[in-house]
Structures are given as C-alpha cells and as structure tokens.
Amino acid sequence: MKSRICELLDIEYPIFQGAMARISDSSLASAVSMAGGLGIIASGTAPTDYVREEVRKTKELTDKPFAVNIMLLSPYSEEIAHMVCEEGVKVVTTGAGTPSRYIPMWKEHGIRIIPVVPSVAIAKKMVRGGADAVVAEGTEAGGHIGELTTMALVPQIVDAVDVPVIAAGGIADGRGLAAAFMLGAEGVQVGTRFLTATECNIHPNYKQKIINAKDIDTIVTGRSTGHPVRIMKNKLAREYVKLEANKASLEELEKLGVGALARAVVDGDMDYGSVMAGQIAALVKKEQSCKEIIEEMFAEADKLLASF
Ligand code: TUI
Q1: How many CB atoms within 10 Å of residue 90?
Q2: Does the chain have fewer CB atoms within 10 Å around its N or its C terminus?
Q3: Is residue 186 part of a domain?
Q4: Which of 17, 20, 71, 261 to mutate to test the pocket of ligand 1 (most atoms within 8 A of CB)?
Q5: Spatial CA neighbour of 150 closest among 36, 245, 230
Q6: CA of 141 to the centre of ligand 1 (A)
C-alpha cells in the first residue's frame, strides 16, 4: 500500500501518528518514524523552547522524516511557526485553525505543509494557499473536532482537491486503514491506537482507561464555546457538559478545564483529568510497540484488500 504520500515524504508506510497535545513527544514520534511511518511532535499549548527541545531530541533518535504539529489556538503558534524554519523541520501539520499566513515562509524553507481540515471549503482554501496534502479529520477523532464523519468527509475532500488526502478519525486497525483507501485516501492518521504504544509516555491509568473503554465511552465537551473537544466520559466531562447545559460562563468552564490535560497525562487523574481519545478507543486492547502496531495494521489491510 504505497501512495503519493510515501514519495512526497520519503516514508515507508502511509501512516501518520496523530499529534496529541502533551502526549506526542520525541519518544513517540521517533518510534513511529523508525517504524516507517510519520512521527509527529505535538506542540499543543507548550512553550516554543519545549517544542524546540523535542525537535532536537527527535533528530538524535532518528534520521527518518518526522513532523511538527502546530496547534493554531496556542499563544505560541506564531513563534513555533518560525522555530520550525530555524530548526530545519521538513514537515509541518497544523490543527484547530488555518495556517495560510505562514505558508509562504514555510515554502521558502522547503517545508512540506499538511493542514488538518474538517470541511471541503477549508481543504480547498489550504490547497489554493499551497498545502502539499491535507489530513481530512472526521468527528470520530479525539480532541478538537469538526462536524462531519470520516466516512462522509474523506471522499468529498478527495473529489475537491488534487493533492493527497490522509484520512483521520476512527481508524485503529487494518479494517479502518483499508476502508480509508477505498474512500480515496492515500494515507491514514492514527492517534488513539498510539496512546497505548510502549513508547507513549502517558500515565499508566490513561492507557488502562483506553484499554477498558466501551463504544459509547467518549463525549464531546465545549460545543457551547465553539471549541468542541472529544474526551473520555468521567467526572470532569459530566460536570462540564452539565455546566454547558446550564449556560455557565466561560470563566466557570475554564476553572474546570484549566490544567485538565496534564492532570490526565502526567498525574493519571481519571476523574478530573481531560482524557482525550477517539470513538475507536474500544478497539484498542493492548500495549504494543509502534512497530508492531504499524506492521499489524498494514498486514491486516493487505490481507483484506487481497481477498476482494
Ligand atoms: O487540532 C486538532 N485536535 C486537537 S488540538 C488539541 S489541543 C487544544 N487545546 C485547547 C483547546 C482546544 C484544543 C486537541 N485536539 N485536530 C485538527 C482539527 N483541526 N480538527 C478541526 C480542525 C480545524 C477546525 C477549524 C481546522 C481548521 C479550522 O478552520 C476554521 C477557520 O475558519 O479557521
């Protein structure tokens, strides 16, 4: 299963590891890149120097291509947009906004630009602006999400743009991978399945919560604020959506949300931490190395596609 994205990025398998804020660091990204996929360092809302250090560490850990994701709601996004040029990063993905104003600068530095998009209109705008590929992310994904499902979104974006489309949201095994290719995608981005990777350094409680997950265990918070975020159901999620239903102020919501991601990832607080995960969490059943995950997914998809 080779595609234009393998050639464009010089990677062996057309799979990206989703940029998960506070989670996707040099350890996870380098392991995915070493296994032949595209490892991605998540910036989230981290300060520029933290992300710079992770870039440098990743370069020490692998000589394979890797990317940096810039979360455009971050107060550091502008600084990080410049930092990737200074550090010679070769691939940038973006999330939670449109990076149009940085694209000319990144092009000058020979950086491949792959925005994550939630709609056809935004995909077209990004391609007109010079994006080399797009990640079409469905609402099944964890974290900050759009409205459309992966099944509906991917083929519509495939028809609308001529650059490679990478499918994201709800993909965790060879079946999802094969299905994405049937929709016209030339690659997949996988987040949730990599949460339980051996090289993913989140708190063991977080990994266990993913492994124990059932199909209906995620919920979307933040619809009322215009920043919908999919997380695992817990006390935080229930209190948050209750506050939203009662038209709580942004201040009240922020009080509950501040520091919540670190509480989950670092402290292992599964009650009041923000445990971001996609709807596919229940399909993730064990800890495996990134290499095992990638090889298993592609072997499964190859077998499926050969059987038709
Ligand atoms: O970015 C994500 N997922 C994320 S980012 C994140 S960290 C965070 N921290 C604080 C608040 C919110 C998030 C956790 N998960 N996925 C990619 C993605 N991008 N999904 C949707 C979009 C998107 C949305 C609107 C992309 C472009 C866009 O453009 C709107 C516009 O008009 O600019």
Answers
A1: 15
A2: C
A3: yes
A4: 71
A5: 230
A6: 11
